[in-house]
Amino acid sequence: MKKVKILAYVLGASVVIVGIGIGVFWKDINEIRAVMAYANAFEPDVIDENFRSFYKQYPAITLAKTGDVSALSKAERADALPEKFDYEGQMLNTAEYLEKFHTTGLIVYAGGNIVHEEYRRGNGPSTQSILMSVSKSVASILMGMALEDGRIDSLDDPVVKYVPELKGTGYDGATIQNVMNMSSGVRWNEDYGDLESDLVQSVVALLTGSLDEFTKTVPRELEPGTYNRYASIDTHVLGMVLRSVTGKSYQEFLKTRLWNKLGAEYDAFLSVDTVGQPLVFGGLHMTLRDLTRIGLVMLNGGRNHLGEQLVSPAWIRESTTPDAPHLMPGKDNKKSSYGFGYKNQWWLPIKDDGGDFTAIGIYGQFLYISPKRGVVIARHSAYPEFLTDPHMDFQSVAMFQAIARHLSPDS
């Protein structure tokens, strides 16, 4: 009897060990599959289709349009786009660069009308294309709402005051403002082309696990608030803050406070991880027309088409005015990892044109706003050479500024 018990124990232990081995094996296999899927998603022959269908390929939730559609009056101009634009002393051809950057859609709004609207490479007015990191700037608007609601006492509060599960992690000691400014101090490699980078590993976590749990593993490297290092995971932390202070899911707060008040023309979609938490830093899929509607809220001082004040003009000014050395624009800024200025999840051009600002998504997504000139420009793109072209973002903003000046030269 004793020998039987011992044998049973050994066999049981063996089964457990084998089970653990299989579990680890399948976890590794799933992660490998996720990395392979990621690596193949941006190939030139599939990138256009993938960008307009990621929400069909992977788990996503629907942000259904609701209520009456807000009118976007149209008065197209044949001369809406300047023939050329200046970039660092070179005159570049606008049409050629729109084509070079694999533009799939472009809307230019000026003087109260859409003056230019075009679609390419299989996209159309109803295409819900992924916005990538333009999603971050939408999260910024929601943060402003939560602050103005009194749900957040101060942006200078530590993150862990609202998200205690981050105590003891790389975010313990960082303030909400640090995180808003991509200055959390966490160690992070944002290289989309490096399959071992932190960014790619966060995508693996999205596809195979939990982004909340992944966030807890990101270590501290720098003193918070001293260096502008673009770290997409910072925006996920903002999503965690919003969930905590509102008592709602991120998607519910987004729907009730912004999306349902835009007069959206089409549904939008939001990618989620395997436990249902949204990809706050890059998962929004939206049509260009509805993205333009978000741009108009920012252009109009936080008011929607019905005149409702969704977020204050003060928040918009605060969010587009860099106020520390590491946030200032300039390619020679040694305290920043990028040439543009940065504040509250928005980018500020190197050459300011009356307080203009922009949201930027990898591979060419943009939402550009020029308050001085009354211009909003929204672009979908799927530029497969993005990772090897260090000028694309800067050239795109220079082009948008040229379009705005062309349409409103006296402003």
Verbal overview:
- This protein has helices at residues 2-40, 47-51, 54-57, 94-100, 134-148, 176-180, 198-208, 211-215, 232-246, 250-257, 288-299, 313-319, 392-407, and strands at 60-63, 84-87, 90-93, 103-110, 113-119, 129-130, 268-271, 284-286, 341-343, 346-348, 357-361, 365-370, 375-381.
- By secondary structure, it is an alpha+beta fold.
- It has a domain at 60-158 and 249-407: DD-peptidase/beta-lactamase superfamily (Beta-lactamase).
- The strands form 4 sheets. It has a 5-stranded antiparallel sheet with strand order 5-4-13-12-11, sandwiched between helices. The protein has a 4-stranded antiparallel sheet with strand order 1-7-8-6.
- A hairpin with a 2-residue loop joins strand 4 (103-110) and strand 5 (113-119).
- The longest helix has 39 residues, at 2-40.
- The radius of gyration is 23 Å and the shape is globular.
- The model is unreliable at 1-27 (pLDDT under 50).
Overall mean pLDDT stands at 92
Helical content stands at 25-40%
What name goes with the CATH superfamily of one domain?
A: DD-peptidase/beta-lactamase superfamily
Q: Specify the CATH class of one domain.
A: Alpha Beta
Poorly predicted regions are: 1-27
Percentage beta strand: 5-15%
How widely separated are the two ends? 94 Å
The SSE order reads: HHHEEEHEEEHHHHHHEEHHEEEEEH
Shape: globular
Rg over C-alpha atoms, rounded to the nearest angstrom: 23 Å
Strand elements, count: 13
- Tally the helices: what do you get? 13
Under the CATH scheme, the architecture of one domain is 3-Layer(aba) Sandwich
Side by side, the strands of the main sheet go 5-4-13-12-11
Find the CATH topology of one domain: Beta-lactamase
